[in-house]
Amino acid sequence: MDIESTLNAPDATRLNAQVEAFNASLSGSQTAKQELGKDDFLQILITQLQHQDPTKPMEDREFIAQMAQFSSLEQMTNMNRQFAELSAAIKSSLVTNLLGKKVEIFQGEQRIHGFVDAITAGLFPQVLVNGNYYDYDRISEVSE
Prior knowledge:
There is one protein chain. By secondary structure, the protein is of the alpha+beta class. It is built from three helices and five strands, in the order H-H-H-E-E-E-E-E. The chain starts with 8 loop residues before the first helix and ends with a strand. A five-stranded antiparallel β-sheet has the order 4-3-2-1-5. Strand 2 (110-120) and strand 3 (126-129) form a beta hairpin.
């Protein structure tokens, strides 16, 4: 749907100015988003509904298609969050199995060998080797 064809000239100009100002604010920040999120999608949908021509309302098919896209986006967001939680749970389970085992850890260019004396669980699990804690991700080798 071409939004500009349903707006009168002053409204189209105002909307284009708002879009340009929004885009300029994004490009000026260092953390500009590369993808649209669910809030962005809702904002676009609301803008379309506010600026549609009352004599030519959005067709039901278009509206239903956009709502289906929003629903899919919401489900993907939920799945992404659940996969992150599952990944953290698996990582915590794996780090538990290292207790008492000999490991090799890369710390910069240095290799550290020792036994795992303790562990910390959570999103970023760590292992205690030779009196120091190291990130689980730095472990390169595990042996009995």
